[in-house]
Design goal:
Helices cover about 60% and strands about 0% of the residues. With about 55 residues, the chain is mostly helical. The chain has one domain. It is elongated.
Length: about 55
């Protein structure tokens, strides 16, 4: 039985570029949402009144 051969360089580069694009897009989407959370809270009139979200005395 022979050892598995390494994938072609082009395949590795394409996979790495694809991963980078997906992670960058997810990071951008997450950052865009996080920057809007205060506005969404205000529009929906959300407060920290849930029992688990109250600050410690």
């Amino acid at each position: 039985m022979s050892a598995p051969s390494a994938p072609p360089e082009r395949t590795v580069t394409s996979a790495r570029t694809g991963d980078l694009a997906v992670f960058a897009a997810n990071g951008y989407a997450f950052a865009s949402w996080i920057s809007r959370v205060p506005d969404v809270k205000e529009v929906l009139a959300l407060t920290h009144q849930w029992p688990r979200c109250q600050p410690a005395p």
